[in-house]
Amino acid sequence: MSDTRSADYTKRLTRLETSGIKRLLPTQAPYRWNLRRLKLGRVLDVGCGLGRNLLNCSPQSVGVDHNAHSVATCRERGLTAYTPDELAEAPDCGPGSFDSLLCAHVLEHMDEALAVDVLAQYLPLVKPGGKVVLITPQEAGYKTDATHVRFVGFEELREHAETAKVAVARTYSFPFPRPVGKVFPYNEFVLVGTLPA
């Protein structure tokens, strides 16, 4: 996981944003649509990276990332983002201050125990009855990043939800049916759940 803290990791993410077909087509459009249709309200985007998802959440949303270089990039883009220590001090980010938690393309970067700890750390910041959205890459996407340490599919997402006391509302493959994830690197596992009211 230490590789994801470096300036080089942030540079890699920046380079990937505009590489290949992404220069010609609005490849993020389906993912933006997916986030908007979930009606997440004020979101805490855990592992926000450069803010790709945060850009598509309500303006009051906040990102948190352990990579200070990525947090700086978010801020340069006009987004509100913090390192974990900064978030703990932020006056409007206390317990129950968010409508939803989004954790997209994060859990596969850490072992199971650390993933459980990260969710336990940030879920109290979501109001009772709030939404939780967990997103991970499928097989082809998992292979694209050397910092991925653990494959997290539907079964593992459900286990994380159960451990965190998140009631699963639905799981689905996006944007294409599940078999496509073996060859298309941008297919995702998505779990949507709610916290106890």
From TrEMBL:
CDD domains per record: AdoMet_MTases (cd02440)
UniProtKB keywords: Methyltransferase, Transferase
InterPro entries: SAM-dependent_MTases_sf
Gene3D superfamilies, A to Z: Vaccinia Virus protein VP39
A Pfam family that the UniProt record links to this protein: Methyltransf_23
Chain segments annotated as transmembrane: none
Gene Ontology molecular function terms on file: methyltransferase activity
Cell membrane keyword on record: no
Any one GO BP annotation for this protein: methylation
The protein, known as: Class I SAM-dependent methyltransferase
